[in-house]
């Protein structure tokens, strides 16, 4: 950071402090990860200087549809990035690699297939859905008519509730995917219900995409009409988004991203996404994805052994939720105390939440970042005991 510090002592020092925080703390935030140095370097490269509104794909005329000159190399790069992501998920779906974030991917995906006022059936937010899945303070809740399905008394997505509500509200779109859900999602069952009611089916696999790429979670391809993801969570790439869609939706998806939702693509991030895809195709990536899941089970089991209640009673993926409903302190209180102890996680609502979203009765725990840093099952068991010690202190 010497170079940045010379240019700006304030910014350089803050980046250095944040780097040290990330390196020294035990990072358990389920939506975070550490991408490779190569991805970081690509994201800080000269591609940041280039404008390339439009798309590289050769359309009817044989020309690209860029609005700028000088795009020869970024055209090649963006097409390469698309090819690699199709390989990662072994799919012939169209892919758009330009969304700046997961939220923008969802914004464009909805636009591609819906009109304002159309109905979306999605997972309720206090049961694990994301802000862009219909929160009243988000564009999704404001532009579309939202109906939510719930989890059952064990905390599993209630497929009977999905079917019942789909038949009642006849949505134009059925959406699944979550920010805080620890079990396998049955994409085939969702697709069947969408077919019954003539709805589009979309999967936001932002959280589990790295596990799908590593064959640790069933794939939504073949079932969903549209699949969106972020690239920075379990996938372990740069901060950004991707949209995949059945080929007949390609033009609608592209025009929903540019010119509807965004201007110039971030070609430096697209370079990072391409490197991330290459990494995801290597055998070591499968080992990483497997270890994320194995670690998560071991970590979660240790909490259960220590007497804690876990939503759904366990985990199949990279995340689980500790249920603190019966504790005299909130998820926020535990988050703060763990922060002081060098353990980073975040508060999260639990099913049938009784506290406010600012306080919550749960914390969300993920294993992807520390798995990237080399943690194995025994390391996570030790962390469970550290968290337990902090909680015991809070109960004194
Ligand atoms: N979708 C899901 C399921 C998420 O969990 C998130 C982020 O947490 C997003 C979308 C949005 O991603 P971003 O923060 O890049 O907008």
Automatic annotation (TrEMBL):
Keywords: Amino-acid biosynthesis, Cytoplasm, Methyltransferase, One-carbon metabolism, Pyridoxal phosphate, Transferase. Coiled coil: none annotated. Pfam families: SHMT (PF00464). CDD domains: SHMT. PANTHER family: SERINE HYDROXYMETHYLTRANSFERASE (PTHR11680), SERINE HYDROXYMETHYLTRANSFERASE 1 (PTHR11680:SF35). Belongs to the SHMT family. NCBIfam families: PRK00011.1. This is Serine hydroxymethyltransferase. The lineage of its organism: Bacteria, Bacillati, Bacillota, Clostridia, Peptostreptococcales. The gene is glyA.
């Amino acid at each position: 950071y010497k170079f940045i510090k010379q240019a700006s002592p304030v910014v350089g020092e803050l980046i250095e402090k944040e780097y040290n925080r990330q390196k020294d703390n035990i990072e358990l935030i389920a939506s975070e990860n550490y991408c490779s140095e190569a991805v970081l370097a690509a994201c800080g490269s000269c591609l940041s200087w280039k404008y390339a509104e439009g798309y590289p794909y050769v359309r009817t005329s044989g020309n690209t549809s860029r609005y700028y000159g000088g795009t020869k190399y970024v055209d090649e790069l963006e097409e390469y990035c698309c090819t690699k992501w199709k390989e990662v998920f072994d799919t012939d779906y169209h892919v758009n690699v330009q969304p700046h974030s997961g939220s923008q991917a969802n914004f464009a995906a909805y636009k591609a297939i819906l009109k304002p006022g159309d109905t979306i059936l999605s997972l309720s937010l206090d049961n694990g859905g994301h802000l862009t899945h219909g929160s009243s303070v988000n564009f999704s809740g404001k532009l579309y008519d939202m109906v939510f399905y719930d989890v059952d008394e064990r905390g599993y997505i209630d497929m009977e509730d999905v079917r019942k509500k789909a038949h009642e509200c006849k949505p134009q779109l059925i959406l699944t995917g979550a920010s805080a859900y620890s079990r396998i999602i049955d994409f085939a069952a969702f697709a069947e219900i969408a077919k019954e009611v003539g709805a589009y089916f979309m999967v936001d696999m932002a959280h589990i995409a790295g596990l799908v790429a590593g064959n640790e979670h069933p794939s939504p391809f073949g079932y969903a009409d549209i699949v969106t993801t972020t690239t920075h969570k379990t996938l372990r790439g740069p901060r950004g988004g991707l949209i995949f869609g059945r080929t007949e939706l390609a033009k609608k998806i592209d025009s929903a991203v540019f010119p509807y939702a965004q201007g110039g693509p971030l070609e430096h991030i697209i370079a990072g996404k391409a490197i991330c895809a290459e990494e995801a195709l290597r055998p070591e990536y499968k080992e990483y994805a497997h270890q994320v899941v194995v670690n998560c089970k071991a970590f979660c089991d240790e909490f259960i052994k220590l007497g804690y209640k876990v939503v759904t009673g366990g985990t199949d993926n990279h995340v689980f939720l500790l249920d603190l409903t019966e504790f005299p302190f909130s998820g926020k209180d535990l988050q703060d105390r763990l922060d002081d102890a060098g353990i980073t996680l975040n508060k999260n609502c639990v099913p049938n939440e009784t506290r406010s979203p600012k306080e919550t009765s749960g914390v969300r725990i993920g294993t992807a970042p520390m798995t990237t840093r080399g943690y194995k099952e025994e390391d996570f068991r030790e962390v469970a005991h550290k968290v337990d010690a902090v909680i015991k202190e809070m109960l004194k």
